[in-house]
Amino acid sequence: MRLDILGLQAFIAVADHGGFQAAADAIHLSQTALSHRVSKLEAELGVPLFTRTTRTVALTREGFSLLPRARRLIHELHTSLHDIRMQGMLRQPKIEVGCVPTLAVAMLTPILAEFAQMHPEHRVRVFDGYASLIAEQVNSGELEFGLTIRRATHSHLSFKPLLEDRFVVVCRDDNPLAGEREVSLASLNHHSLIRNVISAEVLVSSGEIINWRYEAENVSTAIEMARLGMGATIVPSIGLPVGPGSGLAVLDLVEPSVMRIIGILRRPDVPLSDGARALMELVQSRVGAEQASLDVLPTSSIGRIEQ
């Protein structure tokens, strides 16, 4: 006898809801269609499963016997189908890449959305962490490549520069600095300064002694502190949450001007998977277009942060 899955589901629905109309509503069928499924199942089994009157529907002895078995059968079927779907998902190609947090939202996520439309067969895991951790995971093979910052310690890895990101000073729009177009590191000594893990590199490389008042590990935390009027902070310009209503002012950092180099980091001795190569090429294309749209200072006048 053929297994009647639809009939069993209809039978369980009527038993659970105590009537044909309520069961039909619950599983989005007409009462006629539901009754037909139950009657067909009863005909195949050769026994009635319900006693029907004008007012009530009750399980027969055979119906009571079938109900727990039908539940187990449908549950096992759903579980088996779910397991098979999951196995199929696990066989989908998986790409693992890294991206520093300051670039992940503003730059990588739009590229990933475009990639998902082009290559829906791929799964992607993004590790958004510090450049040093991305380098470690690229070197170990955990990540196929990283969109990250050039560091001196990357000499054993392949780094392809794509973009120069200017450092700027951010403060609240009513800060005394907000009326200026540019500010030097030395002049910041006269203002409350919020240091973050990236601006710390700027301060060390400049040789300037800065009296900072607050410190935050994360750039977004430092920006929020600046928004609340606690001081000014030095941050990369890409992805800044500025604009009408942001409450923030952005000033060029001069004397010295500082930039960081953004690019693709990977192991030169390990070939990329097809999916990772396609994603890397899309990143290079889109980030390269971003570089072309930026007003970049002449490289002779720019200090560089390799972090």
TrEMBL record:
Q: Where is the HTH lysR-type domain?
A: 1-60
Q: Which residues form the signal peptide?
A: none
The protein's matches in InterPro entries, at most eight in alphabetical order, are given as: HTH-type_LysR_regulators (IPR050950), LysR_HTH_N (IPR000847), LysR_subst-bd (IPR005119), WH-like_DNA-bd_sf (IPR036388), WH_DNA-bd_sf (IPR036390)
Pfam families to which the protein is assigned, alphabetical: HTH_1 (PF00126), LysR_substrate (PF03466)
GO molecular function annotations of the record: DNA binding; DNA-binding transcription factor activity
Q: Which Gene3D superfamilies match?
A: Periplasmic binding protein-like II, Winged helix-like DNA-binding domain superfamily/Winged helix DNA-binding domain
Sorted alphabetically, the keyword list is: DNA-binding, Transcription, Transcription regulation
CC annotations in GO: cytosol
Tell me where on the tree of life, at the top rank, the source sits: Bacteria
Family, similarity comment = Belongs to the LysR transcriptional regulatory family.
Tell me the protein's name.
LysR family transcriptional regulator
Q: Which organism is it from?
A: Pararobbsia silviterrae
